[in-house]
């Protein structure tokens, strides 16, 4: 029984889909798309060399174009900060003296415990401070 070339390419595409799912490496998916393109070429009667060439060209093109775009998107911070990330960089008003040992501030309409980033620095009530980081339920200010 002679299996046509396009069937082998589809089997190859399915085989490349397995490591895509198991490893979450998108490159396998891009090569699977290349195998599907080669199957389409085989269906239209392309020879074996042309089929391999279609597979290689489509796979390399997808990896070289899509991968940098995906890496750029992965490296970007989210546009909308939520939770404690949204509080970083905001200003607060000191309610009780804040030093390295602690204190209280009013941040985003709520009372927070706080401590100074610089262990030598002391902030008196009424002073405006900037929130540098949130450590649990404590705002680190300067």
TrEMBL record:
<keyword id="KW-0472">Membrane</keyword>
<dbReference type="InterPro" id="IPR012340">
    <property type="entry name" value="NA-bd_OB-fold"/>
</dbReference>
<dbReference type="Pfam" id="PF01957">
    <property type="entry name" value="NfeD"/>
</dbReference>
<keyword id="KW-0812">Transmembrane</keyword>
<keyword id="KW-1133">Transmembrane helix</keyword>
<feature type="domain" description="NfeD-like C-terminal">
    <location>
        <begin position="85"/>
        <end position="141"/>
    </location>
</feature>
<dbReference type="InterPro" id="IPR002810">
    <property type="entry name" value="NfeD-like_C"/>
</dbReference>
<feature type="transmembrane region" description="Helical">
    <location>
        <begin position="6"/>
        <end position="22"/>
    </location>
</feature>
<protein>
    <submittedName>
        <fullName>Membrane protein</fullName>
    </submittedName>
</protein>
<dbReference type="InterPro" id="IPR052165">
    <property type="entry name" value="Membrane_assoc_protease"/>
</dbReference>
<feature type="transmembrane region" description="Helical">
    <location>
        <begin position="52"/>
        <end position="70"/>
    </location>
</feature>
